[in-house]
Amino acid sequence: MNGSAKVTIKTIAKKANVSHTTVSRALNDSPLVKEETKKKIRQLAEQMNYSPNLNAKALVEKKSFIIAVYFTDMSDGTSPSFMSAVLHQIREFLPTGYEIAVDSFANLRRSHQNINFRFDGALVLSQAASDDEYIDQLAATGKPLVVLNRQIERTDLYNYYSDDYLGTSTAINYLLRMGHRKIALISGREGFVSTKLRTQAFCDVLKKNHISLPAEWQVAGNYSLSSGYQAMEKILNSGELPTSVFAENDDMAMGAIRACYDYGYDVPNQISFIGFDDNTYSKFYHPRITTIRKPVMEISRNGVLTLKELIDGNTPQTDRVIGSKPSLVVRESVKRNNN
After folding, report:
1. Close Cβ partners of 136 (under 8 Å, ≥ 6 residues apart)
2. Residue 97 belongs to domain spanning
């Protein structure tokens, strides 16, 4: 076959010796076609590099075959590693034939743009209560919508998130079990719900254990590598040093560890670190970072599969609101403190 020739459903039908209707049904997973025939047709379609005409399909089915993905802010506060992990998971579980369109509410706000409603469904990776006005706009369209990452007040939408308060409590209690009482904090971006919950849990656990810390040991970052580095510089120059640091995400932990190396401090022998998220790089860093694993894969998978069910007109067989539990991942960046 000429490699430049356009492969169509009729081309596959001729090769498979079936009708073009059968090919169309097989590629759309119709129950009217036997599984054996479906398998044969799919293999032929793959071998022939068949690419469906989504524009034509969209006109027929009155669909855009686009899923909108909205972050709170992609340029400030959302670490590249977190964004990459989420988008990777969304693409992995994306329904066949769909594309994603990525934007942020902050970008819409800065550019004074309105939401583009040309999509079949939307996933919102929410970090702040300021997103609620846009979530309300999306919900008002009646189109399928799933909100991820942050627990929202609305109970009529599907909402999957991670328990940041529990995760932080687990992290600080681990440091306490490892003998640390001088614990510094590098917090995330102001205004983000994750920052509020993680900081609150940090303070609550220390208060419960009758531990008070110098104000100089509580420094704000914005979830970026550079903010972790700069925050750690302030802590190192504050006078007395902590024996350990809780950074509210792994990116800041990595930046802070780099600052320790540059200032001549040994990690973890002089200063231990624990992060949050368990991003892609934390297990390859030196030392490998002890952290709290945020169930990004579970949340993203549930979000996409639920959205697909809603787009198909089905009722998802799942609770509307699910808070997933994060877990402790012990590596090498925390050393027992015997002082």
Report:
1. none
2. 66-162+296-324
User: Which pTM does this prediction carry?
Assistant: 0.78
Q: Are 253 and 291 in contact (CB under 8 A)?
A: yes
| 332 within domain boundaries | no
- Same domain for 42 and 135? no
Strand extents, DSSP E, the chain? 66-71, 99-104, 121-125, 145-149, 158-162, 183-187, 218-220, 244-247, 272-274, 291-293, 321-324, 327-329
CATH number at residue 178: 3.40.50.2300
Distance CA 186, CA 96 (A): 42
C-beta of residue 175 within 8 angstroms of C-beta of residue 274: yes
**Are the beta carbons of 127 and 149 closer than 8 angstroms?**
yes
Q: Tokens 């097989």 correspond to what residue?
A: 26
Domain identity same for 202 and 233: yes
Q: Within this chain, do residues 131 and 218 fall inside the same structural domain, yes or no?
A: no
- As a whole number of angstroms, the distance between CA 258 and CA 264 comes to 10
Cβ proximity of 159 and 146 under 8 Å: yes
Contact 248, 274 (CB under 8 A): no
Q: What angle do CA 246, 250, 251 make, to 5 degrees?
A: 115
The single residue listed with the structure tokens 């079949």 is 120
pLDDT in tens, 61-82: 567 789 999 999 987 777 777 8
CA–CA distance, 161 with 295 (Å, rounded to integer): 9
pLDDT of residue 3: 46
280-316 pLDDT, tens digit per residue, is 899 999 999 999 999 988 999 999 999 999 998 999 9
**Block residue for tokens 């027992």:** 336
- 3-state class (DSSP) for residue 96: coil
